[in-house]
Amino acid sequence: MFGSQVLETAIGLVFFFLSISLFVTALQEFIATFLKLRARTLASGISELLELEKNQHETLNAIVGHPRITPLDGKLSYVSAQAFASTVVHVLNDAPTAQASTFDSVNQRIQNLPDGRLKDVLKMANTRAQGDIAQVEQEVANWFDESMNRLSGRYKRLSGYISLGLGAVLAFGLQLDALRVVGALWVSPAMREQATAAANATAAYGKALPTGMPEQALQLFGFQPLFHSFPTGMAFWGCLVTAFAISLGAPFWFDTLQGLLKMQVRGTGNKPAA
Q1: Is the pLDDT of residue 220 over 50?
Q2: How many other β-carbons are positioned within 10 Å of the β-carbon of residue 204?
Q3: Closest by alpha carbon to 24, among 230, 256, 234, 217?
Q4: Do residues 17 and 253 make contact, with C-beta atoms less than 8 angstroms apart?
Q5: Nearest-CA neighbor of 10 among 240, 238, 185, 179?
Q6: Is the pTM of this model over 0.85?
Q7: Distances (CA, A) of 219 to 6, 68, 137, 190
Q8: Helix 2-35 and helix 37-50: axis angle, to 10°?
Q9: CA 189/CA 26 separation, integer angstroms
């Protein structure tokens, strides 16, 4: 049937994208770990948050150098909002005797901070808290959370650029032509059947996907892992489509594949009773 042919072709194409994306994802994680991208992005984000480049102040340096922010081994990889907020209050507080003394101490140290984001946030938090130091800490934690969400978006964009670069190298180096894959699947029922079977087997892994490019994907579509020539004509555009598809990531293609397989099951099964 025509509808079945379209669906099976789509399943085969998505399986192809997923197979290559798995390899790219594993390679990207290796690069990120080797270059310590997460730690560097986080350190850069905290530095921007406290505006350390323009404000070299002992209090700010004490916050960054605190063990809860920067461990003894110097491997900064994660800082919770609560840890950051409690560190800020701890560094600002030099009279931890009573609740009122703590608040007054923090308030005094805030006035001595250099002008910047942290001082503005603390002054606003102090005004709202009305003597409650826990409220000040919560306000700082909320600010840190919002800032880290923006930083997470920056890291995702960086990861996307890396995926796109790796995808382009693979697509053009191995001539992974998406248009060729579609054409091969469309005219060959046997290839569609093999691709669908391989897709079902891959989907059976659930979220625990195998990390690596399944050899059956390359063998199925007739690609050889040799950088022997550069694609031209329609092959160039087909490889470009593959590169951009790979940059979407393995989780995206895995979810898409599961959706298509569910559609196929509903399309071939009997209508359920009322």
Answers
A1: yes
A2: 7
A3: 217
A4: yes
A5: 185
A6: no
A7: 22, 51, 58, 14
A8: 70
A9: 32
